[in-house]
């Protein structure tokens, strides 16, 4: 995404962004304050957006802008609602890393149900000399609840990051966070652990700090959600929960995610998001 304008009215910026959305143009408004807002557009559509913006600046009160905002605010007619189609090829094109990790987790879980000893024996960090084992524990899950919780958060956070900053950044963050979180759990407790939650905590940390250091990236995490994850982390270390958790992997992942957010704090704004 490319920043093309800054307005002294958040309302005007949002009005123009809504109009562009209604016209099929990818424009987003990032509100800093009520008297300061930035406008971002897809690089491919920049010329067309800038033309529309010049028209908007000439007649910001034109009815067509209000009409577009009103159209977007209307609820969808239930009788006419069309459910989105599941298109695996489109999902792969839009978020290949996110989808690949999700599918791997599902396949490994199915393997665990058939051959628990074989899958754990190959993927747990039981032999540090075999380098792949520093990463593969993130694919192991020990219950259906464990699996669903982790892959749901992975899909929600990983897909956003990949669509806005690209597959390479998500892959680098995922592998480095997995390595750090797995190593921390291994050295503090031992090899008997698994799960994607260390990486999920890394993404939580990345989203939380990035949203404060560089809101133009479009990655936001509410304070309530961040507070819940921190509370869950603290309760895990207090050992008052009914489940056994890889607490050091969670902590290591969180610290690694915060570190990535700091390193990429000057990263440019989001790439063109794909809706499906």
TrEMBL record:
Coiled coil segments of this chain: none
BP GO terms, sorted: proteolysis
Membrane topology per record: Multi-pass membrane protein
Domain Peptidase S54 rhomboid, first and last residues per copy: 130-266
Segments traversing the membrane: 89-111, 131-156, 168-187, 193-209, 221-242, 248-264
Subcellular location, record wording: Membrane
InterPro entries the UniProt entry points to: GlpG_N_sf (IPR038236), Peptidase_S54_GlpG_N (IPR022732), Peptidase_S54_rhomboid_dom (IPR022764), Rhomboid-like_sf (IPR035952), Rhomboid_protease_GlpG (IPR023662), Rhomboid_protease_S54 (IPR050925)
Keyword Cell membrane belongs to the record: yes
Main location: membrane
Top-level taxon of origin: Bacteria
Keyword Transmembrane helix: yes
EC number(s) reported in the record: 3.4.21.105
Stretches assigned to the Peptidase S54 GlpG peptidase N-terminal domain: 1-75
Enzyme class per UniProt: hydrolase
SUPFAM superfamilies: Rhomboid-like
Protein name per Swiss-Prot or TrEMBL: Rhomboid family intramembrane serine protease GlpG
Organism: Rheinheimera baltica
């Amino acid at each position: 995404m490319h920043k093309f304008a800054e307005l002294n009215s958040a309302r005007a910026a949002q009005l123009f962004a809504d109009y562009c959305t209604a016209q099929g143009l990818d424009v987003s408004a990032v509100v800093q304050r009520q008297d300061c807002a930035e406008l971002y557009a897809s690089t491919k559509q920049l010329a067309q957006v800038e033309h529309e913006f010049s028209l908007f600046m000439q007649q910001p009160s034109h009815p067509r802008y209000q009409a577009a905002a009103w159209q977007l605010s209307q609820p969808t007619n239930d009788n006419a609602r069309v459910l989105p189609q599941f298109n695996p090829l489109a999902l792969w094109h839009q978020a290949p890393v996110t989808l690949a990790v999700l599918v791997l987790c599902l396949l490994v879980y199915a393997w665990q149900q058939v051959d628990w000893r074989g899958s754990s024996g190959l993927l747990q960090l039981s032999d540090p000399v075999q380098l792949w084992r520093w990463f593969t524990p993130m694919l192991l899950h020990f219950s259906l609840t464990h699996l669903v919780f982790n892959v749901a958060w992975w899909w929600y956070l990983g897909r956003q990051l990949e669509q806005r900053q690209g597959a390479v950044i998500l892959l680098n963050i995922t592998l480095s966070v997995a390595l750090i979180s797995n190593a921390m759990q291994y050295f503090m407790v031992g090899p008997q652990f698994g799960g994607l939650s260390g990486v999920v905590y890394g993404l939580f940390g990345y989203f939380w700090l990035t949203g404060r250091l560089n809101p133009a990236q479009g990655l936001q995490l509410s304070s309530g959600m961040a507070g819940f994850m921190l509370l869950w982390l603290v309760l895990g270390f207090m050992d008052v929960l009914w489940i056994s958790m890889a607490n050091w992997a969670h902590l290591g992942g969180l610290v690694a995610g915060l570190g990535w957010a700091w390193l990429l704090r000057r990263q440019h704004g989001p790439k063109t998001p794909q809706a499906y």
